[in-house]
Amino acid sequence: MKNTLTILCALILTACVSKEEKFVDILDHKKEWEEIQSQLPSYPDASNLLEFSVGPTSSHRHYIDATSIRIGQDRVIRYSLVVKSAQGAENATFEGIRCETREKKRYALGRHDKTWIQPRTSEWERLENVVQDQAQRELAKYYFCPRGLIVSTPEEAIRALKAGAHPKALR
């Protein structure tokens, strides 16, 4: 009896300790959301870059590599972003946006030798009203997540970038 009780207690403790907590998106009717593993795209090629506007307050030019746009089964739109300064400096990142929660995540940073490296931190962050997120907010609002809904295909995102905004976006 004592042995059975000890084993039962051990099983209960193991079940409690080994149970992983999963992210539950309260905006998605309490369904569990799980991010899928994403492969890095090829480094952005200048011939595939589509420029988009982030508004009159930025002196930088912003581009999306059209061939990098992917929409995952996890409903995250992933893309390569290239930012060029007026002085000629260039930064490339591989990022994702979750339209339902207005969050962004940086998966990789571009290097001068046209390879990717992992950033120090790669976590989901809210698209708050800070200058550093200006490009991502504009992408979400006017190109990739019009009215909070994710575009259905990469081609739809490309059409929105070429047109200067998605037709369903509110300007």
Report what the structure shows.
Strand 3 (70-71) and strand 4 form a beta hairpin. Helices cover 22% and strands 23% of the residues. The termini are far apart. It is globular. With 171 residues, it is of the alpha+beta class. It has 3 helices and 8 strands, in the order αββββββββαα. Mean pLDDT is 84; it is low at 4-26. It has one domain. Strands 1, 2, 3, 4, 5, 6, 7 and 8 form an 8-stranded antiparallel sheet that branches. It has helices spanning 2-18, 134-144, 154-163, and strands at 49-52, 61-65, 70-71, 77-84, 90-98, 103-110, 116-117, 125-126.
What would you say about this model in short?
This protein is of the alpha+beta class and 171 residues long. It is 22% helix and 23% strand. The chain has one domain.
